[in-house]
């Protein structure tokens, strides 16, 4: 079953461009790891130093075990370490829950 999550947090004002630059060079191994773990889509939105990230995944594949494998992988650890300096440690990550989803179902109905 497809699941969605959204998170927000703040970036250090002086490191917003670093965050953008780092995301312009996402390692293909990391993308493959995410896809193999059942993650279908990740989208990051910026508004100044406010960051919103959405995640779409298949919860039959992206299980607790898959999350552990992703988080313990060397490529994921390196990726998170490269981003660590961009997050504002004084602000906590906020998780949102979906209340409405309109999906695109091409070819269904008339």
Topology-level CATH name: Alpha-Beta Plaits
What is the succession of H and E elements?
EHHEEHHE
CATH top level label: Alpha Beta
Q: Report low-confidence residues grouped into runs of 5 or more.
A: none
Helix content: 25-40%
Summarize the main sheet. Answer: 4 strands, antiparallel
Approximate strand percentage: 25-35%
What is the averaged pLDDT score?
A: 93
Domain unit count: 1
Shape: globular
How many distinct helices? 4
Specify the structural class.
alpha+beta
* Strand tally: 4
**What's the architecture in CATH terms?**
2-Layer Sandwich
Arrangement of strands in the largest sheet: 2-3-1-4
Task: Report what the structure shows.
The chain has 110 residues and is an alpha+beta fold. The protein has one domain: Alpha-Beta Plaits (2-Layer Sandwich). 33% of the residues lie in helices and 27% in strands. The chain has helices at residues 16-23, 28-36, 64-72, 74-83, and strands spanning 2-10, 39-47, 50-58, 94-96. The chain has a 4-stranded antiparallel beta sheet with strand order 2-3-1-4. A hairpin with a 2-residue loop joins strand 2 and strand 3 (50-58). The longest helix is centred in the last third of the chain and has 10 residues, at 74-83. It starts with a strand and ends in a 14-residue tail after the last strand. The model has no long low-confidence stretch (mean pLDDT 93).
């Amino acid at each position: 079953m497809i699941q969605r999550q959204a998170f927000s947090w703040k970036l250090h004002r002086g490191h917003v461009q670093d965050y953008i630059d780092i995301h312009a060079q996402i390692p293909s191994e990391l993308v493959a790891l995410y896809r193999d773990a059942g993650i279908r889509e990740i989208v990051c939105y910026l508004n100044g130093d406010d960051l919103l990230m959405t995640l779409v995944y298949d919860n039959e594949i992206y299980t607790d075990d898959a999350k552990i494998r992703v988080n313990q992988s060397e490529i994921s650890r390196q990726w998170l370490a490269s981003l660590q300096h961009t997050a504002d440690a004084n602000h906590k990550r906020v998780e949102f829950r979906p209340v409405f989803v309109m999906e695109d179902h091409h070819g269904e109905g008339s």
